[in-house]
Amino acid sequence: MMRAIKLAVACVAVVVATAGQVQAGIIFDSTLYTFLDVSGPGSGQASINNLGEIVYKSIDVSGNHQIISTTRGLLLTLPPRSALRFLDINDSGEVVYSARTGGPFGVFSTVRGAITASGFEGVRPAINNLGEVSYLGPNGIYSDIHGLVATVDNPAFYTDINDSGEIVYQDRDTSGFRQIFSTTRGQLTTSSGGNGGLAATINNDGDVVLTRNTSAGDVFLFALDGTQLTSFSIKNSVIDMNDFGDIVFDFGTGSELSVTETRVVLMTQRPEFFALFGFQSFTPPPPPPDSGGGTNPIPEPSSLALLITGAIGLIGYGWRRKRKQAA
Predict the structure, then answer these.
(1) CB 320 within 8 Å of CB 313
(2) pTM for the full model?
């Protein structure tokens, strides 16, 4: 009973606090962020809405998959031998997720029930504040309102959708490199070497945050303009962002179905707001030897020419010096 009262009080406090905030333009600067431990180990697949409510997947002592809310507590427990992965929440508190019991994964809502028809595979769902749901289905990206909206050449990572209906997702470009795409703006990243992005999240201002990996398997967070947001590897590609620039991600090496090795971490520029939730501080690990997010830039032609010219000059200088010494 006391837990229920505490959750109710926290929920009211969050609504009141959020109502008084004005969301300004987000400055994506790693030095402005504070990291908080949302749930401890054994959780993942997190999503956050504009009220600051975070939902994530957990597994109970019986092995049943559950959806937990930081303000409302336990939202859903799936039947035994069911699998749950990929959650998203909107400002109304509606959560969409993909789950299966024996058959293919389908998309479901905590409010509306099944979103995809029985037997129609759907994974990696997202929901906006108008209730439109995007997900990855056979051969492409789907909307529950518009049907197939984009075809993909390979199984894409996590879709996300904003209130304008813009969906971001990962696919391969014409050279076979992984890039981030938008259903309205086309290809958003252009990095070569297959490192344009693994997963992306978008808010209602069109801001995009994405993950990139290194050849060593480390995963880093970036803003769309290339600003690196984490100096440490988050080791995973499950991310979500709201309109205030608050970002949640899975930290650890757990798989899509197992979260025993992951925990949910929040990075925020307004830690005073999240003091209401009682989250613990998260101490980021030291950066790995290669903390550049796998970006190994090739010098531009002008830079390359300068390097070659400088090298030739040094060789010529050494040759002339030897001739003088010999004379």
Answers:
(1) no
(2) 0.80
Instruction: From 209, 210, 211, 214, select the one nearest 193 (Cα to Cα).
Output: 214
* 2-18+34-296: CATH, from 2.30.30.40, 2.60.120.260, 1.20.1530.20, 2.120.10.30: 2.120.10.30
- Count Cβ atoms within 10 A of the Cβ of residue 242 and give its class: 0-12 exposed, 13-18 middle, 19 or more buried: buried
Low-confidence ranges of the chain (pLDDT < 70): 1-24, 154-157, 192-194, 253-260, 290-327
- Report domain extents, the chain: 2-18+34-296, 301-327
Per the DSSP assignment, residues forming a β-bridge with 249 are 239, 265
pLDDT score recorded for residue 21: 46
Widest CA span in the chain: 97
Residue 260: what pLDDT?
Answer: 65
Sign, Cα dihedral of 21, 22, 27, 28: positive
